[in-house]
TrEMBL record:
Membrane topology according to the record: Single-pass type II membrane protein
A family per Pfam: Scramblase
Name under which the protein is recorded: Phospholipid scramblase
UniProt cofactor(s): Ca(2+)
Organism: Hylia prasina (green hylia)
Keyword Transmembrane helix: yes
Keywords (A to Z) from UniProt: Calcium, Lipoprotein, Membrane, Palmitate, Phosphoprotein, Transmembrane, Transmembrane helix
Domain of life: Eukaryota
GO terms assigned for molecular function: phospholipid scramblase activity
Gene Ontology annotations for the cellular component aspect, listed alphabetically: plasma membrane
Location(s) in or outside the cell: Membrane
UniProt KW Lipid metabolism keyword: no
TM regions (residue ranges): none
Length: 248
């Protein structure tokens, strides 16, 4: 894991300040985008944004049709930095039949674009099982950046009652572990997935499902997540952690 340039934190939760970018002018819909960073050698195009942040906030957008009819529509998300500036926009790609028949287990592609409209990250999730009764067919997600170039994988680990995942690089070498809680439903509290070193002795980051209020939790399936990682973590692994959040 040392090849990916992060310093594991033996105690507590990784910190690090956010490099404050200059504010952009808002777009026609009022969205303020994070300023475009300069290109960086050996960095996949579009991932330069991730070199400047140690937190990503993911907000699922409300779909009125889905709320009113219960008809499952394509999920769309805003990815923002700690200042509330949009870093990326994500949209699910699949068909109507798959969404409404397979539910949350459905396969999908996720197109993540930057503020120039470039597709900078592609997530590919095939149709798989999530039960420990089928250990040979557990969840797996491939992360590509740029599209067509694999930078890593997120694979579910077989466990009787805990949600556990492994973050791997493009060669399927284990880089990080993700451990979730025993109870996935907690009223009025965030649900945290701890990102650990491979030997699970050091905290490296966290993926959290944010509590959004009783009404939203009951009547919609709209979720908000937060991702924290070391500022100096390799941008490819930051992209894979974003993929892990969507898989979770």
């Amino acid at each position: 894991a040392g090849n990916y340039g992060f310093q594991a934190q033996p105690m507590g939760f990784p910190g690090g300040s956010v490099v404050p970018p200059v504010q952009n002018q808002p777009t026609m819909d009022g969205t303020i985008w994070m300023p475009i960073p300069p290109s960086i050698p050996n960095c996949p195009p579009g991932l330069e944004y991730l070199t400047q942040i140690d937190k990503v906030l993911i907000h699922q957008l409300f779909e009125v049709l889905e709320i009113v009819t219960g008809f499952e529509t394509k999920n769309k998300y805003e990815l923002k930095n700690a200042l509330g500036q949009r870093v990326y926009f994500a949209e699910e790609v699949n068909d109507c039949l798959t969404r409404n028949c397979c539910g949350s287990a459905r396969p999908f592609s996720m197109r993540i674009t930057d503020n120039l409209g470039r597709e900078v990250i592609t997530l590919q999730r095939p149709l798989r099982c999530s039960s420990c009764c089928c250990p040979c067919c557990l969840q797996e997600l491939e992360v590509q950046s740029p599209p067509g170039t694999t930078v890593g994988y997120v694979v579910q680990n077989c466990h009787v009652y805990l949600p556990k995942f492994t973050i791997q690089d493009e060669k399927k070498t284990n880089i990080l572990k993700i451990n979730g809680p025993c109870f996935m439903c907690q009223c009025c509290e965030d649900i945290n997935f701890e990102v650990m070193s491979v030997d699970e002795t050091c905290a490296v980051g966290r993926i959290s499902k944010k509590w959004t209020g009783l009404a939203q939790e009951i009547f919609t399936d709209t979720d908000n997540f937060g991702i924290s990682f070391p500022m100096d973590l390799d941008v490819r692994m930051k992209a894979v952690m974003i993929g892990a959040c969507f898989l979770i």
